[in-house]
Design a protein that fits this description.
The structure is a homodimer of 122-residue chains.
Chain A (H helix, E strand, L loop, with lengths): L18 H14 L2 H11 L5 E3 H4 L7 H13 L3 E6 L2 E6 L1 H10 L11 H4 L2
Helix pairs in contact in A: 2-4
Chain A binds a DNA duplex (30 and 30 nucleotides) through helix 4.
Chain lengths: 122, 122
DNA sequence: CTTCTATCTTGACGTTCATCGATTCAAGGC
DNA sequence: GCCTTGAATCGATGAACGTCAAGATAGAAG
């Protein structure tokens, strides 16, 4: 069924996306479209050592533990992070391939006109 | 008041985002978190000449014209596109600075471990 | 000035989402 | 076995979102 962003690398800014591609990419962007999830991802990605325990994430927010757990689940379903239980604690880490793909989706082909040229020329 | 993504260039994957930064960046990602808006943006960005008339966008979707207009408004409020009325028609174009900034937000610092190393090492 | 076409705005409706409290599950330590 | 602690799931609730039909607005052409 639906295409996965892991398989395709649509060039968003070069050619029109078809519906399947748009659906797959939108799923990941939607996961990033919440400030709590962005901060969670940022805390996980920037952690030296590459992984973070949930118990280190929760106290940084003014939210209940189930809510944090919910957001982590959405990030995981979007393929942005993964986790593993080790004893009593659960550790999360970034899947850099996912953010790399997204960055590529947003990158204009080399040789494109410099930023804002189109607007300035008007 | 709230920070704008135009002013800051937070490195999402390098250091933890603060709440203001997260709010600003999330606003843009949320705009991209819908397949219709992604396809609209893609159609606008990939158009040779740099601009598209609404009348060229609407027939590509199985949606009412007001719905398309609504999505275009959200993309514009996110700072991703801009528009101008010229006679009877309204033309939209990409603001490349916005997508450039987003791509940079998602880019890992040079020298970071290759994609998925963290997971594979486990 | 009236009419026609292209687009935007408004108001309403059903769906999805973020959040919480309560509960459940998993793993250790007693 | 039975607590204790960390984390996930469940069920409910209010807010935000996507969509449409109807109406409003802007410009061009008669």
């Amino acid at each position: 069924m639906g295409q996965d962003i892991a398989e395709c690398c649509p060039a968003l800014l070069t050619a029109p996306l078809d519906e399947e591609q748009a659906e797959a990419v939108a799923k990941v962007f939607k996961a990033l479209g919440d400030p709590v999830r962005l901060r969670l991802l940022s805390m996980i990605a920037s952690r030296s050592g590459g992984e973070v325990c949930v118990c280190d994430l929760t106290p940084a927010f003014d939210l209940s533990q189930p809510t944090i757990s919910h957001h982590l689940k959405l990030l995981r379903q979007a393929g942005l992070i993964d986790c593993e239980r080790r004893g009593t604690w659960v550790y999360y880490w970034l899947l850099p391939a996912a953010t790399d793909r997204l960055a590529r989706v947003l990158t204009r082909p080399a040789g494109a006109p410099p930023a804002d040229t189109a607007a300035a020329a008007r």
